[in-house]
């Protein structure tokens, strides 16, 4: 049953309290409610909040389950934080879909999906992370972020923290001062990050302590400072990171100067593995990263163990694959098989570390001349994004039903990205 609900009936009550039992309605902004937040406050599970074109200066928190928040036009519906609020959209209830809108100019995150009360309250992140102290781990379960443009945000464009059973898809992120897309503190995650574009961020995609059924597939991570990292970090719970699948991604030209400078100074690297274990890197095209295509290293007390690098293509990188362990903590059981590559540090890794390897086999390390990272620019000055594809039939399709657990991708359906995609990104490499 589809209804259009008004904001107020004029007698001190609202239509929300008078609707037929079980009815699902569309609440239109601003026709039925003057602000997005007001519309969300009226919504019940199963409702659609449909936003007309306009610039909305508000922070929207969704704490009612199974609401769909959708813009009528992806580039014309803009939630603009004006650098006065930490988050554009906060999803704090299960089964919520956020679709077809732009979110920008927030001091922390464009879209935050979280089961953490501390994070949802907008407490300041430390070094790009949320250290939630003694707060117990509570997961938000089931979410969808689709066809969202997140640009010029002070930490992350799209951030899933202490969340499970979700999908981030067909979205575009730029100007993330830490990373464009971030998944942190989940085990098992049951999260799929697919078919997104991340460019002009400090890091395109970052997964910290994100373990178990964690899939990053078919994304274009081009023209950032670092393309992708998966790592363990003591600032978040549920470490160490392990068991993610990184497949079918284009990870290229990640030495873009006109980007925010990340605190740890990463630069020119396609894929970085820092204290992450048992991850699979399959059929990625990793090209033209000035420092290295893929780096394995270790934190002070967490080794990188059992990572498998299989059937990837590396071209034009400073070093295609480099393993380096600057502390006494070293990797073990990391291996390569079937990759198209030319240079490794140490040399001959494709032979000496060929899969399969015994889990306790020590991983050799080496050093190479790494380029010096140049200074960056403020996230507020990153180039504005172009128009991105619209959510199909945004104004005529009803509310989205978010699955309780997303289906994992079929690995057989994830090919190596074609070399022609590099030509499409020439403007990023040349700028």
From TrEMBL:
**What positions does the domain Periplasmic copper-binding protein NosD beta helix occupy?**
151-321
Q: Give one Pfam hit by family name.
A: NosD
- Stored SMART domains: PbH1
Residues covered by region (Disordered): 1-24
Record's keyword annotation contains Repeat: yes
User: Per UniProt, which keywords does this protein have?
Assistant: Repeat
Q: Which PANTHER family match?
A: F-BOX ONLY PROTEIN, F-BOX ONLY PROTEIN 10
Would you tell me the protein name for this molecule? Periplasmic copper-binding protein NosD beta helix domain-containing protein
Q: Which organism is it from?
A: Streptomyces himastatinicus ATCC 53653
């Amino acid at each position: 049953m589809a209804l259009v609900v008004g904001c107020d009936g004029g007698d001190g009550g609202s239509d929300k309290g008078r609707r037929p039992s079980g009815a699902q309605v569309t609440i239109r902004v601003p026709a039925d409610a003057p602000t997005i937040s007001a519309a969300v406050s009226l919504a019940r599970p199963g409702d659609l909040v449909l936003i007309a074109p306009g610039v909305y200066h508000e922070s929207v928190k969704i704490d009612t389950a199974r609401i769909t928040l959708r813009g009528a036009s992806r580039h014309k519906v803009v939630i603009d934080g004006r650098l006065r609020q930490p988050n554009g959209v906060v999803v704090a209830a299960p089964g919520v879909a956020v679709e077809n809108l732009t979110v920008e100019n927030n001091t922390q995150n464009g879209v935050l999906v979280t089961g953490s009360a501390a994070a949802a309250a907008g407490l300041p992140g430390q070094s790009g992370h949320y250290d939630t102290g003694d707060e117990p781990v509570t997961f938000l379960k089931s979410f969808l972020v689709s066809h969202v443009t997140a640009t010029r945000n002070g930490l992350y464009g799209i951030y899933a923290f202490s969340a499970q059973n979700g999908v981030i898809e067909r979205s575009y992120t730029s100007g993330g001062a830490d990373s464009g897309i971030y998944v942190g503190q989940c085990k098992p995650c049951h999260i799929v990050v697919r078919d997104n574009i991340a460019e002009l961020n400090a890091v395109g995609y970052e997964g910290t302590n994100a373990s178990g059924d964690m899939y990053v597939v078919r994304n274009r991570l081009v023209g950032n400072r670092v393309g992708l990292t998966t790592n363990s970090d003591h600032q978040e719970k549920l470490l160490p990171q392990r068991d993610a699948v990184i497949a079918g991604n284009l990870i290229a030209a990640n030495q873009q100067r006109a980007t925010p400078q990340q605190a740890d100074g990463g630069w020119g690297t396609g894929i970085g593995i820092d204290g992450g274990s048992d991850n699979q890197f399959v059929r990625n095209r990793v090209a033209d990263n000035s420092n290295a295509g893929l780096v394995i290293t270790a934190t002070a007390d967490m080794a990188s163990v059992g990572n498998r690098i299989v059937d990837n293509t590396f071209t034009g990188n400073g070093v295609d694959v480099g393993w380096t362990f600057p502390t006494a903590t070293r990797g073990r059981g990391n291996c390569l098989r079937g990759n198209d590559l030319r240079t490794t540090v140490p040399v001959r890794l494709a032979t000496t570390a060929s899969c399969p390897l015994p889990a306790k086999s020590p991983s050799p390390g080496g050093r190479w001349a790494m380029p010096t990272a140049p200074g960056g620019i403020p996230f507020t000055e990153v180039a504005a994004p172009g128009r991105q594809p619209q959510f199909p039939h945004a104004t005529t399709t009803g509310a989205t039903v978010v699955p309780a657990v997303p289906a994992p991708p079929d690995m057989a359906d994830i090919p190596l990205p074609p070399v022609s995609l590099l030509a499409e990104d020439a403007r990023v490499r040349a700028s």
